[in-house]
Amino acid sequence: GAEPTVMVDAALFAIKELDALTNDTTSLLHELQNASIGLLVFTNDNKATAEQLDQHMGFLSICQCASNESPDMIAGRLATLLDIGPLLTKQLLGNHTTFSKTALANELDQEMKMAAKLQRDFLPKTIPSLPGLSFSTTYRPATFTSGDMYDIMRLDETHVAFYVADVVGHGLPAALLTIFIKQAIVTKRITNNNYKLIEPAKVLSTLNHELIEQGLSDFQFATCMYGILNINTLTLSIANAGHPRPMHIKSDGTSSELSINGPLLGVFPDAQYITNNFQLEKHDNLLIFSDGVESAFDHNSDDNTLSFKSIFGNLGTIGIEAIQAQLLESIEQIESTGHPRDDVTMIGISIKEK
Q1: Phi and psi dihedrals of 207, rounded to 5?
Q2: Are the CB atoms for 185 and 203 separated by under 8 Å?
Q3: By three-state DSSP, how is residue 148 classified?
Q4: Packing angle between helix 101-121 and helix 171-184, nearest 10 degrees?
Q5: What 8-state DSSP symbol labels residue 149?
Q6: How far apart, in whole angstroms, are the C-alpha atoms of residue 166 and residue 174?
Q7: Confidence of residue 34 (pLDDT cuts 50, 70, 90)
Q8: Where are the alpha helices (H) located in 154-244, listed in sequence order?
Q9: Exposed, middle or buried, 299 (CB in 10 Å: 0-12/13-18/19+)?
Q10: Cα 309 to chain center, whole Å?
Q11: 260 within 8 A of 274, measured Cβ to Cβ
Q12: Residue 321, exposed/middle/buried by CB under 10 A (0-12, 13-18, 19+)?
């Protein structure tokens, strides 16, 4: 019988040095390029970035991936390659005789910039101004678009809600899902002339149900931290869906994680989420962040928790905005050494005198 046809959507390489791609596999790489097949490269070689390699070889879609990256990050990068493959094939077939890689790159660049602008339009335009509270935010995408989304919303006279959500991976698929999450989060139930605030666990449960109902691919899931703060009593109600734990920073400079856990969004139909309650005090700071911030933390192997690096000194005295600025500076220093760039999103809440 006839030989079965093998369809290749993406290729994965594991090499010691990036030079091996150009020296030993040039012919194969050109075949992949002509077939519009994306390439994911696993290497610990930090002498060149994936972008530099792309420019050197003219390869259409190539991602560099450190060997110590998490399975979630690898899955996200692979999903991005699979998503852009059909677009590249269409472009090649439609412009077979006049195809210009520069023109294609410019077109994709413009489309990504438009997508980034659309995503930013869904971010909060203004931050609520409340007596005794101040908010500060940091939002730095890894590329044009981000897999992160956040919001801060005043629910009524005494309650303010906030969340940070993080979709696995980067690029357009992740960005589109953040917009869906933004629209799918329901904070209150309104009946006639009355309303009822929805507790954080229920908000996440409903969001999880909405994501499951979409029938997304196996790679498309998300994490989220959603909380409600009573501005009079300073009671914090908060629930977690697979997200990094917030950091509670007290006025004396000591800090600790809020011990809250929960399953990922979009994976388990019967996932159960828990609303946890904490009592905050005046002059406390609270930091909620996406997993792109975790590279700036030290890992404590004794109890498997995270702690701020010593560079922050007395955290309670420098203010939440300064804390975020130092975190971002630390992250960018780590990235400059070859660490994979990730989306960075932070919400800082500072409790002050009214």
Answers
A1: -65, -40
A2: yes
A3: strand
A4: 20
A5: E
A6: 9
A7: low
A8: 171-184, 200-213
A9: exposed
A10: 22
A11: yes
A12: middle
> What average pLDDT does this structure show over 175-180?
88
Of 42-51, 122-131, 324-333, 339-348, the range with the lowest mean pLDDT is 42-51
Residue 280 CA to residue 240 CA, distance in Å, equals 18
Handedness of CA 187, 190, 196, 202 (dihedral sign): negative
Residues 133 and 352: their CA atoms lie apart, in Å, by 6
Sheet arrangement for strand 133-140: 133-140, 344-351, 285-289, 247-249, 255-257
Residues 253-288: pLDDT tens digits? 777 889 999 999 998 899 999 999 999 999 999 999
Sign of the dihedral through C-alpha 232, 234, 237, 239: positive
- Residue 150's pLDDT band, with cuts at 50, 70 and 90, is very high
Phi, psi for 348 (deg, rounded to 5): -110, 135
pLDDT number for residue 223: 94
Q: Are 288 and 347 in contact (CB under 8 A)?
A: yes
Residue 14: which residues within 8 A CB-CB, separation 6 or more? 41, 42, 43, 67
Does 303 or 161 have the greater pLDDT score? Answer: 161
Element (H, E) at 237: strand 235-241
Task: Give per-residue pLDDT as tens, 184-240.
Answer: 999 999 888 899 999 999 999 999 999 998 877 655 789 999 999 999 999 999 999
Do 188 and 197 contact (CB within 8 A), yes or no?
Answer: yes
